[in-house]
Design goal:
Layout lengths: L1 H27 L8 H13 L3 E4 L8 E6 L6 E6 L13 H22 L2 E6 L8 H7 L8 E3 L2 E3 L4 E2 L6 E10 L15 H15 L8 E8 L10 E10 L2 H22 L2 E6 L11 H13 L5 E2 L9 H5 L4 E2 L2 E3 L9 H6 L3 H23 L1 H13 L1
Parallel strand pairs: 3-4, 3-5, 5-13, 6-14, 7-12
Antiparallel strand pairs: 1-2, 2-4, 8-10, 8-11, 9-10
Helix pairs in contact: 1-2, 1-3, 1-10, 3-10, 5-6, 7-10, 10-11
Length: 388
C-alpha cells in the first residue's frame, strides 16, 4: 500500500488547485437546502471533466445529482455522498462546502483504480441535509438500492479524526392549537386561549422528562403565540424535534409526546393539528467493518490517533445506512471552533481544513481501492450489514 499512498498523494496534488477553487466558490456562494443550483452545477462540471457520466435532478430532487464512472470489469459500486447546503445567515457553518468537495475528490481519484480493478465509483449529490434531508426521499426512490458501500466524511472542530458512530432517529413535529379570540380584559370568558394549549404542552413534556430514557431528546420552540397581550390568541404553534437512539425507541417516545399534546388540547379546550414540518430521519447504523478499513487507511497515510465521536444529533445519512453499508466519520479542521457558526464557516477555507480534507480524501480512496481489490472484504462488510 505504501506505493499506492505515494501515487495517490501525487495525483491529489495535481487536482488540488481545482478542489480549492471549488471549495472557495461554494464558501462565497452559500445556498440553502433545495436551492443549491450553483453548487450542484459546479460539482457536476468538475466531475464531467474527469469522465463521469452526470445526471442532474437525480431521483426527482432538483438540486441532487448522480455522477458515475464504470470500469471495464464488473465489481462493487462504491458511492461517496456529497452535501453542499448552507445555513441561513451563517453560510457554510456546518462545513458542507468542504464535505462535498472531499467526496467529489475521492470519486475523481478512485476512478483511476476502477479502470484497473473493475467496479464502479459514484458521487451522489445529496441536498438539504440541514432541513428536509434529501437522502430520505432519495432512499425511498431507490438511489441507494444497488450501492455496495456508502461513505461520507464530515468536517469537525479540533485536531483529531473521529470514528463513525451512531446518530439519533428523529421526528420533526409541528403542533397547532386553535382556539377563539376575545378581549383579554373585557370578555376573557368568551375566548379559548390557544397559547394555553402550547404552554401546557411544554409543561407536560417537561414533566415527562423524568420518565424517558437518558438518551431521549425532546426540544422545541413556540413559533406563533398571539398578536397582542390584550387579545386572547386563537392560534398558537410549537415546533419540536423528538429524538431517540433508534426507530423502536423513538416510536415509544413519540406516543408519550403525542399524548402530552392531546392532553394539552383537552385541558385548554382547543383543537389540535399535528404534522411533520420537516423530514424525519432514521438512526445511523455504522458498519464497523467498513469503519475499520477506513481507520486502517488513515493510519497508512500517517494518522496515528483516531478518536471516538459522541453520539448526538441526527442526519439523513441514517436512512442510507438502513439500505447499504455506510460510514459517516469526521475529519478535523485543525482548529477549535463552534459548529453552526460564522467562525466554523471561515475555518473551512483555511490551511487546517485543507490538511484535514487531504487526509480524509486519501483515506476514502484507499478504502475504496481495498474494496475493489478484495471481494472478501466486501463480503464481510455486507455480512455485518445483513445481520444488523
Amino acid at each position: 500500500m505504501e506505493k499506492i499512498v505515494l501515487e495517490l498523494k501525487e495525483r491529489y496534488t495535481k487536482i488540488f488547485h481545482e478542489l480549492k477553487e471549488l471549495n472557495h466558490y461554494l464558501f462565497e456562494n452559500p445556498e440553502l437546502g433545495l436551492k443549491e443550483f450553483k453548487a450542484r452545477d459546479k460539482h457536476c462540471e468538475l466531475l464531467s471533466k474527469y469522465g463521469f457520466f452526470v445526471e442532474k435532478e437525480y431521483c426527482g430532487v432538483e438540486t441532487a445529482f448522480l455522477a458515475n464512472y464504470v470500469g471495464e470489469k464488473p465489481g462493487p459500486r462504491i458511492a461517496y455522498l456529497a452535501e453542499y447546503d448552507a445555513l441561513p445567515e451563517i453560510g457554510h457553518g456546518c462545513g458542507h462546502n468542504i464535505l462535498g468537495v472531499s467526496s467529489s475528490a475521492a470519486g475523481i481519484l478512485l476512478r483511476e483504480y476502477v479502470n484497473i480493478y473493475g467496479g464502479e465509483v459514484l458521487v451522489i449529490g445529496t441536498p438539504a441535509e440541514e432541513t428536509d434531508g434529501a437522502k430520505v426521499a432519495m432512499a425511498k426512490a431507490g438511489a441507494f438500492d444497488n450501492v455496495d458501500i456508502a461513505i461520507t466524511v464530515h468536517p469537525t472542530s479540533g485536531d483529531y479524526h473521529l470514528r463513525s458512530t451512531s446518530s439519533q432517529a428523529m421526528e420533526a413535529l409541528e403542533f397547532t392549537f386553535k382556539g377563539k379570540t376575545s378581549h383579554a380584559a373585557g370578555s376573557p370568558h368568551l375566548g379559548i386561549n390557544a397559547l394555553d394549549g402550547v404552554i401546557t404542552l411544554f409543561n407536560t413534556i417537561n414533566a415527562l422528562r423524568q420518565q424517558i430514557l437518558t438518551t431521549d431528546r425532546v426540544h422545541g420552540i413556540i413559533t406563533k403565540g398571539g398578536e397582542a397581550a390584550n387579545i386572547i390568541p386563537d392560534l398558537a404553534v410549537a415546533n419540536f424535534y423528538v429524538r431517540s437512539r433508534n426507530k423502536k425507541e423513538l416510536d415509544i417516545l413519540l406516543e408519550k409526546v403525542l399524548n402530552c399534546a392531546k392532553a394539552a388540547a383537552l385541558s385548554s379546550g382547543t383543537k389540535l393539528e399535528i404534522r411533520n414540518y420537516e423530514t424525519s430521519f432514521l438512526d445511523l447504523i455504522t458498519n464497523k467493518k467498513l469503519m475499520k478499513i477506513y481507520e486502517e487507511s488513515l493510519k497508512e497515510i500517517g494518522i496515528k490517533e483516531i478518536k471516538d465521536s459522541e453520539e448526538s444529533g441526527s442526519t439523513d445519512a441514517g436512512d442510507v445506512s438502513h439500505i447499504c453499508p455506510t460510514i459517516h466519520p469526521y475529519m478535523p479542521l485543525y482548529k477549535n471552533v463552534i459548529s453552526h457558526s460564522k467562525k466554523f464557516a471561515q475555518s473551512t477555507i483555511e490551511d487546517g481544513a485543507y490538511k484535514g480534507m487531504e487526509e480524509a480524501v486519501l483515506a476514502m480512496v484507499l478504502t475504496g481501492i481495498k474494496l475493489l481489490k478484495d471481494q472478501r472484504l466486501i463480503d464481510s462488510v455486507k455480512l455485518e450489514f445483513e445481520k444488523k
